[in-house]
Amino acid sequence: MVEMVLILPLILVMLGVAFTGWDAMQESIRLTSAARAGAIKAANDIEGGQSANAWNDATTAVNQEENVNNVYQNTNPAAADYVKMAQATDNLNGSGASINTVTITISNAHVMAMPFVWNMTVTTSATARFT
User: Fold this and answer.
1) Of 91, 105, 114, 124, which alpha carbon lies 20 to 30 A from 1's?
2) What is the DSSP letter of 88?
3) How many Å apart are CA 84 and CA 18, to the nearest integer?
4) CB 42 within 8 A of CB 85
């Protein structure tokens, strides 16, 4: 009985850490898919001459991929559900050819399954090319 009382809290903490890590990994996979959808939408908008709408359309694509309405936003960078967009043009090894890319980054505060385990923020990004 004494051994169980000494070991049980340790086992519960270890299970809490394992479940929290598993949840964070699953959320990271899900958010990467949403970031990829946003990056593709933004790249298509920019390539089609709609660069003014690219960020908003990418944010909408992220929300659609996550099956939520207006959870992810691009207006408050301090929020945990912020969608960031960055454009870049890279040279290919000095060959004169260039690649245009757009990167969507999403940060989200992970909801803990076990409240006594540390807080975790999941951040993912995806990049799409355009001409």
Assistant:
1) 114
2) E
3) 30
4) yes
C-alpha torsion angle, residues 28, 34, 38, 40 (rounded to 10) = 100
Chain centroid to Cα 74, Å, comes to 13
Token duo for residue 7: 């070991």
Of all residues in the chain, what percent carry a pLDDT higher than 70?
89
Between 62 and 109, residue with greater pLDDT = 62
Question: What's the average model confidence in pLDDT over 75-90?
Answer: 87
CA distance 102 to 35: 11
- 3-state SS class at 97: coil
pTM of the model as a whole: 0.79
In this predicted model, what pLDDT tens digit does every residue of 101-131 receive, in sequence order?
Answer: 899 999 887 666 666 556 677 888 999 988 7
Helices (H), ranges, the chain: 2-47, 54-65
SS (H, E, C) 109-120: EECCCCCCCCCE
How far is 22 from 119, CA to CA, in rounded Å? 14
